[in-house]
Amino acid sequence: FGVMGLMNLERVSAYAFNQRDSRITMLRPCSGRVSMHKLFGFLESIECGGDAQIEEAVDLMLGRHRGRGIAILLSDFLTYADLRRSFNLIFSAGLEIFALQVLGPSELDPEIIGDLRMVDSESGRTLDVSAAGDLVGMYQEYRRAFERRLDSLTKQRSGRFLTVSSDSGVRHLLFDTLRRRGWIV
Predict the structure, then answer these.
(1) Residue 116: per-residue pLDDT
(2) DSSP 8-state assignment for residue 46
(3) Is the pLDDT of residue 19 over 80?
(4) How far is CA 18 from CA 23, 43, 52, 53, 173, in A?
């Protein structure tokens, strides 16, 4: 998305939030092809993971951001927080929301058989589960309902929402999925 903006001489800025050091890092607004090395350097420096809360990241980002445009949120959106507040703040700041939920293949289609112990990779909390067959069906119902809720939250604010798998290739994502959904023309 950043490259497309830079190639179209749009001003592009990027923000990353990592709970480990409770601060937001920022790529200052830049434009043009000459800024691609700045964008790539910024993206390569981002440390992924942790249990950062999206609402805290949105608050910090909006404290630094200036101007109107598009806010592209890349997240799993798996939070205990009410995302309405964050989406309202983004929308009120004059930004159109493009929310891209990135989930792993095992989050999209878990293979659970028998008794098991589930471990949250971010918090380390555990949950012992038995009779997993019914659990998978309930999980899929909940996941799809959550996706519909996120889709509704973004559409109510003139935005867009899409869930993608983390194992989707970039070419397939950009030139097939996002093009068909109207995110890219």
Answers:
(1) 75
(2) P
(3) no
(4) 7, 13, 6, 9, 25
